[in-house]
Amino acid sequence: MDSMTVTTPDGARLHVGVCGTGPGVVVLSGGPGAVHYLESDELAPQGFRAWFPEPRGVGRSGGGPHTMAQAVADLEEVRRAAGVERWTVLGHSWGSDLAVRYALDRPEPVVQVVGIAGHGLHKDRSWSAEYEAGKTADPGPDIAWSPEVHAALQESFLDWIHEPGLWRSLADSRVPMAFLAAGVDIRPSWPLAQLGELVPGGRFETVPDVPHDFWHTDPKLWGVVVTAACRPS
Predict the structure, then answer these.
(1) Using CA atoms, how far apart are residues 38 and 114, in angstroms rounded to an integer?
(2) Dihedral over Cα of 48, 120, 141, 69: its sign
(3) What digits encode the pLDDT tens for the residues 22-49?
(4) Pairing relation of β-strands 177-182 and 202-207?
(5) 157-192 pLDDT tens trace
(6) What's the mean per-residue pLDDT of the chain?
(7) Among residues of the chain, what percentage have pLDDT more than 90?
(8) What's the chain's Rg over C-alpha atoms?
(9) How do residues 49-65 score in pLDDT, each as one tens digit?
(10) Please, which contacts does 152-156 make with residues 24 or more away whose CB atoms are closer than 8 Å?
């Protein structure tokens, strides 16, 4: 795994892992506010040139708490610095939701969105109750994160999903979007199924018998799944 540093217009220095050759894919990890736990040659889609930007204010990236709009702007700075015209946006968990935001805000450079085990664009009590009930049985891997960045992005996410035109923009989007649920995730998958139905080029699938963090429990399967999902259908 190689790396590059991208300096944003406001002076933040962003760490970006880089590996592989082929069409471009930017890989977004979850959190929000977590270090980039997917930055690994083994976890990268094969046959692609993959970039792994660590969010500003987290881990090896400078800066601090920020909004989703700033996160999208940072991704564009990474794309320009990498010299990529268009790329697939692959996100896991929170990264899936950010990938959708990126595709709606900046559709021109997005070949497709691949969202895996995302939350979905909602704040639903029944979803949260089911998720909380399963947390003790599925603690997941220990991942470093920034509480301040997490809180700022959660607030920005709520502002975004309350925007009046959000669902109209999803229904009008020309960007193909694939949403994959983890079969034994404690996170209910119905929001992803809804997105797959709503987006004109959308689809929804389930990866059977895997937990939310199957990149950690079964990295070989993760590699197979993301490679297949990133290839043109």
Answers:
(1) 14
(2) positive
(3) 999 999 999 999 999 999 999 999 999 9
(4) parallel
(5) 999 999 999 999 999 999 999 999 999 999 999 999
(6) 97
(7) 95
(8) 16
(9) 999 999 999 999 999 99
(10) 152/65, 152/66, 152/67, 153/31, 153/32, 153/33, 153/65, 153/66, 153/67, 153/68, 153/71, 153/94, 154/32, 156/66, 156/67, 156/68, 156/69
- Is residue 99 within 8 A of residue 91, CB to CB? The reply is yes
Handedness of CA 160, 161, 163, 166 (dihedral sign): positive
d(CA 170, CA 10): 30
Closest by Cα among 44, 87, 4, 48 to 219: 44
Tally Cβ neighbours within 10 Å of residue 142: 7
Tokens (6 digits) for 96? 């899936």
Which pLDDT score, from 0 to 100, does residue 191 have? Answer: 98
- As a whole number of angstroms, the distance between CA 191 and CA 148 comes to 26
pLDDT at 233: 67
* Residue 10 predicted with pLDDT over 70: yes
Model confidence, pTM: 0.97
DSSP 80-146: HHHT-S-EEEEEETHHHHHHHHHHHH--TTEEEEEEES---S---HHHHHHHHHHGGG-------B-
17 has which bridge partners?
Answer: 3, 52
Distance CA 50, CA 44 (A): 7
Task: Give residue 192's pLDDT.
Answer: 98
Question: Where are the alpha helices (H) located in the chain, listed in sequence order?
Answer: 68-82, 94-105, 125-134, 147-161, 166-172, 190-198, 214-217, 219-230
Cα(194)–Cα(170) distance, integer angstroms: 11
